[in-house]
Design goal:
Structural class: mainly alpha
Distance between the termini: 80 Å
Number of strands: 0
Radius of gyration: 31 Å
Shape: elongated
Strand content: under 5%
Order of helices and strands: HHHHHH
Largest sheet: none
Number of helices: 6
């Protein structure tokens, strides 16, 4: 009686074929993490390389007299804000100094209008539009909210629509929005100062 041939459990013809069959899968598993890492690095470098200013915009910014105007008005407005905030809080806590607090908010609002108008002119000269230029889109959006709250204060003051205490609460809301907006611009200023260094390191293939 002829011995029975037990079929192989493997569907491959031989060991060599089995190895060749699995080798591409092994190589693929090795290559995929490398591709993924390179893609992540490329995306990160692209995001970091996005400049705040193009070369032409930077030249226009440096040549514009409105750049100096903004650099002068911004700290002046911030000092007025701090003084006015103290006066407003003093009135809300102790109920004294209403006239000074009111006058300080009016002066702060006038200064805000001045910096918004000159800032729009500056933005037009540098980026070609008065508002919502790409690098300052969200700062401009929040600036509109700040301006609206300050304007609401002036309208309510002129029309006697609100009692003094509520009027000062409107001023506080406007100041809170202004503080957030000022922080936005400070962070953007920091990014602008770091841009040349980041560009140079990016050209060398290094992370800033």
């Amino acid at each position: 009686m002829a011995p029975r041939t037990v079929p192989s459990l493997s569907h491959h013809l031989d060991e060599a074929l089995s190895i060749n069959h699995h080798k591409p899968c092994t190589e693929l598993l090795t290559v995929i993490p490398s591709i993924s890492t390179e893609a992540c690095n490329s995306a990160r470098v692209s995001a970091q390389a996005a400049p705040l200013y193009t070369t032409e915009e930077r030249l226009r910014r440096d040549a514009s007299p409105w750049t100096i105007v903004q650099a002068v008005l911004a700290p002046i407005q911030f000092v007025i804000f701090l003084v006015s905030l103290v006066l407003v809080l003093r009135y809300l806590v102790w109920g004294t100094g209403l006239a000074l607090a009111t006058a300080s908010v009016v002066i702060k609002t006038i200064t805000l209008y001045a910096i918004m108008i000159t800032g729009s002119i500056w933005e037009r000269e540098v980026f070609g539009r008065y508002l919502f230029a790409r690098p300052f889109l969200w700062e401009d959006v929040f600036s509109i909210l700040v301006l609206a709250l300050h304007t609401l204060y002036l309208v309510a003051l002129a029309s006697n629509a609100l009692a003094s205490r509520r009027l000062m609460l409107v001023a506080l809301a406007a100041y809170a929005a202004y503080a957030v907006n000022a922080t936005q611009f400070l962070l953007k200023l920091r990014a602008a100062r770091r841009q040349p260094r980041a560009t140079a390191l990016g050209a060398l293939g290094l992370a800033p």
